[in-house]
C-alpha cells in the first residue's frame, strides 16, 4: 500500500471514475491514438567519448521533425529533438565543431558542468553569427562529479526563443554513481521534458502570441520528442529515471500513479542516500534522478504533470497584461499525462542502494551578499526583470568574488512570480529558507526562490577564474533583464 497525499488521491480517484486526462492539447487535434515517435534521422542519438576524447560536429538549424506523430519545424542540433546526448568521463577532452545554420546568432552553454568559463569553453559571451563556425574545446576535470548536465543556447536576448524552438540536449558525466551495484542493475532511462507552441502548420508560434512576461509556455509537452512514451519496468525491477526540465518557463510537478520516487541525485550531483518522495517539482534548468521500484500489481501507471501556480503578472493589475495573446494565466488546472510505465515480465527483486555519496556541509563563508529579485518598468522595453533594482547590462560587472573563497548569497524574491535562481559553473548548497535551516544536504545549480520568500545559498568558487553570469532560469525573465555578471578573480 502506498500512502497518497490528498491531492494525489483526488487525481487518482477522478481518473478512476473515468475523467479523461489530457495528454496535452496539441496532440488532441489529429492524433487520436498517440504513439511514441521515432525520428527519421540517421545521425547518432548518443555520442560517447572514446579513449578520453569526445569529438563531434554539431549543427544548429531549423529542421522538420516528427514530434509525437506530428510534423513540426523546430530549431535543432543535428536535426534532432531533443539534441543528441553527449557522454563523457572525468578527465576527458571535448572537441565540438559547432556550425550555426540558424538565422540568428547563438552560442552554447554547458549547464551544470564545472569547466572554464573563458575561451572556447563555457563562455556565454561568445557570439556565433549565422553561417559561422566555432570549435568548443575543453577538459572535464578529473575530479568532476558524475551526473546529468545539459547544453543549450545562451546568447542574451535570444535564450528563451531558441530554447523554446527545441535547442537542448543532455551532457552526461559517467562515474561513481553509475558504478554503484544497485544503480547499475537498474534500467536507465532519460526523460527530456520540453514544451512547444505550434500553429496548425507545425510552425513555431511567434513571440507576439506568447506571454513573454509570465515566461512562455506551450500547450504541447514532449518527453524525448514523443507524446506519452512507454517505459517498461520488470516486476521486481528498478527503473532509473534521469529527468531534465528543458522548458524555458514551465514548471513540472510530477507524480507516478501508485508509486513513490526514490530520489538519488539533484542537478547533476549525487545525494548521500535515496530519499523517498511522492512528488517532484522541477523548475526550468533543474534535473533530478530517481529510482522507481517495480513492486506493484502488473499493469500500466501514468506519470502525471500536476498544475503548479508560479504566480503571474496579472496580479499586478490590468495595465501590465495588455498585448495580443498575453495571458495572465500561466498554468493549467488539469493534470497532464506525460508518460506511461508498463510492467513486463518478472525478475528476481532488486534492492535499493543505501549509501550513494558523501556530501559534507561547507565551512562558514568569507563573504555574505544580498540579492533582491523583482520587476519594474523600463522605458524602452516596458516590463523589466531586475536584480537589486537593475536590469542586466552586458558591460556592467555586478558581483566580483575571489577564487577559492566561499560566499553566502541571500536571495529575496519580493515580486509576484516565482524565480528559479541559477549560477553558472559552480554548484552550491542551500543553507536556509526564510531563516529556517535547510535539512537536506545537497548540491544544486538552480534553486527556486518562490515569490515572497528568501533563500540563502553557500557557494565555493573553485578552479576557474573569469567572467560568467547568474540569472533567473525562466529564460524570458533572463532575457528581460534578470541576470547579473559575475567575475571570479584569481
Ligand atoms: Cu541553463 Cu544560464 O543556464
Ligand atoms: Cu547554466
Ligand atoms: Cu524569473
Description:
The chain starts with 5 loop residues before the first helix and ends with a strand. It contains six helices and 32 strands. The protein has helices at 6-16, 25-28, 159-164, 176-179, 181-185, 475-479; strands spanning 46-48, 53-67, 70-77, 85-88, 93-100, 109-111, 133-139, 147-152, 169-173, 187-196, 220-223, 230-234, 238-245, 252-256, 261-266, 269-277, 280-282, 287-293, 300-305, 336-344, 367-378, 382-387, 399-402, 405-413, 419-423, 428-433, 436-437, 443-444, 446-449, 454-461, 466-472, 483-489. The chain is globular. It has 490 residues and is mainly β. Strands 21, 22, 24, 26, 27, 28 and 30 form a seven-stranded mixed beta sheet that branches. Residues 1-20, 28-40 and 315-331 have low confidence and may be disordered. The chain binds CU-O-CU linkage and copper (II) ion (CU) (2 copies). Residues 109, 111, 152, 154, 285, 422, 424, 471, 473 line the site of CU-O-CU linkage. Residues 419, 472, 474, 477, 482 line the site of one copper (II) ion.
Using the alpha-carbon principal axes, give the shape.
globular
- Stretches where pLDDT is under 50 for at least 5 consecutive residues are 1-20, 28-40, 315-331
Distance between the termini: 55 Å
Q: Count of helical segments?
A: 6
Question: Could you give the topology of this structure?
Answer:
Blueprint: H1 6-16, H2 25-28, E1 46-48, E2 53-67, E3 70-77, E4 85-88, E5 93-100, E6 109-111, E7 133-139, E8 147-152, H3 159-164, E9 169-173, H4 176-179, H5 181-185, E10 187-196, E11 220-223, E12 230-234, E13 238-245, E14 252-256, E15 261-266, E16 269-277, E17 280-282, E18 287-293, E19 300-305, E20 336-344, E21 367-378, E22 382-387, E23 399-402, E24 405-413, E25 419-423, E26 428-433, E27 436-437, E28 443-444, E29 446-449, E30 454-461, E31 466-472, H6 475-479, E32 483-489
The structure holds CU-O-CU linkage and copper (II) ion (CU) (2 copies).
The site of one copper (II) ion has 5 residues, from loops.
